[in-house]
Design goal:
There is one protein chain. The N and C termini lie far apart (40 Å). The N terminus is likely disordered. It is globular, with a radius of gyration of 19 Å. By secondary structure, the protein is mostly helical. It contains 14 helices and no strands. It has a domain of 39 residues.
Length: 251
């Protein structure tokens, strides 16, 4: 994708400009090889989905980044990094998203995303010293919620893999999730988006509930599903829909 995707997409979403204005953000090859895809991209994806205010452009950019990183689609990632930064996602938040999703999608996906982002950060004058490091002042721990989570994991898996139980507690929930440069709502948002994009709906119940506890509304969650249908595919979203339905009804 061309580098000016970000500004064009945001301008379209903000002003309701004609869909044709967005068509130039896609590679020329799309129009030459698949003109119908170009039309769907222009009219439906950019023309309707991105301009739906149920989920902000900033959140859509973060969700898309999480999905592309999860799917190892690094060729497209740079354009959406630009979009996210222009939409109000801070460099620190994107840095934290990569770090966070390393634990949920794998180290290889995270390092590939960092390689794709590095030239953009360099062009924008964003240095490593501008970004959160390993040592930060943690957010407060919700001790009651963490105790309930730990009890469930211990009772189910302590005899299966004590190492996983221990690192889940010590590294993920007593460390990673308490880092302050990505808000708890946004950590939940990108985690759920990654689970959907990876086709792992069986892990969604806990994390979607946590997302809604952290401030994500049901309407926003529904809009995220609609958005991800285009980036992860309809089958993965329909696999996630029954889990979302169950979570919504339980609340």
């Amino acid at each position: 994708m061309k580098k000016h995707l970000a500004a064009s997409a945001i301008a379209f979403a903000a002003t309701g400009a004609q869909a044709q204005d967005v068509a130039t953000t896609f590679p020329d090859a799309v129009a030459r090889v698949a003109p119908a895809l170009q039309a769907y991209s222009t009219d439906d994806l950019m023309g309707a989905v991105w301009s739906d205010e149920t989920l902000s452009v900033r959140d859509r950019a973060l969700v898309t980044f999480a999905a592309l990183m999860t799917r190892h689609e690094t060729e497209s990632l740079g354009a959406y990094v630009e979009l996210a930064l222009d939409a109000g996602v801070t460099p620190a938040e994107l840095s934290e998203t990569i770090t966070h999703l390393a634990f949920y999608t794998g180290w290889g996906n995270a390092t590939a995303a960092a390689e794709a982002m590095a030239p953009i950060y360099e062009d924008r004058g964003i240095a490593a010293t501008d970004l959160p490091g390993a040592e930060v002042d943690f957010l407060p721990l919700n001790e009651e919620a963490e105790a309930a989570r730990e009890e469930t994991v211990q009772s189910n898996f302590a005899n299966v893999s004590p190492g996983v139980v221990a690192t889940t507690r010590d590294i993920l929930f007593n460390d990673l999730w308490l880092r302050p440069d990505l808000a708890p709502r946004d950590r939940s948002l990108v985690t759920v988006a990654a689970l959907i994009a990876a086709g792992q709906p069986e892990q969604m119940t806990f994390h979607l509930n946590r997302a809604m506890d952290n401030g994500l509304t049901q309407e926003e969650a529904g809009a995220m599903l609609s958005h991800l249908a285009f980036y992860a595919g309809w089958p993965k979203v329909f696999s996630a829909m029954p889990v979302a339905k169950q979570v919504f009804e339980s609340r």
